[in-house]
Amino acid sequence: MLIANVCQMSQFLLQKENSTELQLFEHINEFAFKKNNSIRLNSFNENCSDCLRLYYIIEGKFDWKINRENYTLYPNDLVIILPGQELIAEKGYLEIGSLYWLKIYLNIQHNGNKNALGIWSSISAPEYISIKKIIFLNNVPVLSRLTDAASIFSQLRNEIFGQEIGYVTRVNQLLDELIILITRKVTQQSICQRDFPQAFLKLENELRKDLSHHWTVEEMAAIVGLGTTAFSDKVKNFTGFTPINYLINIRISEAIKLLKKPGENVTDIALDTGFYSSQHFATTFKKLTGYTPSHFRKKNI
Asked: In what order do the strands lie in the sheet with 69-73?
């Protein structure tokens, strides 16, 4: 219910240099909620930053490259980008979906002061030493299924915009809660033990092998050995999309690759990626990217 409510709310982008909401928070560089309803080219160029960057996926599937390593992100995944680390959208654009992000300036040098994270934090220096060892030295970039983080991000939004009495203290408490939650999760999880069924990876591989086939939900469910209801629930849980919309996103992703090849005919691309006709392909492609296939090709060849 919480995720559904979050997905319905308005987008926002608060930046330190031009948002009055952040004037009392010197340590918060940026706080945002983004709901991306269409693929937008060149819409995600984060690269490096001197902040600690946290991204929490609410809906959708995102392929990102973190410090030259590829990661696929799903709802309830939290991404930790340390100061100086590189973040790039693998496909060159921000995929369809929604996410929170938060950029925080941290005092990452322990200097013996009571508040090693900064005067805003109540985390003590000895506790911070442990946190730094776990988060900064172990360098775990993705935490899977961190459902508790959704509530913290939602509360941060409500406090910052609501500005009721005591909101500055409460925002700082929530930041501490988030850092502690992340630290505890890191100790419980390693990247090689991510909670992601191999059956789902098998499904995507099988779909990509024969995208020209007009896959039904029943056929896709059979690949992973599930009934259609259980299968639909699982796909929705992992990607935020219905099976058909998930399949359409795969088709468009493959079509984008083919359109970048100058020798490929647009009609052939449409049929090879499973669309009924070039018109069906063009209509769907423009709906999800904002471009017709021909316009996209002109801009990217």
From this structure: 69-73, 62-66, 87-89
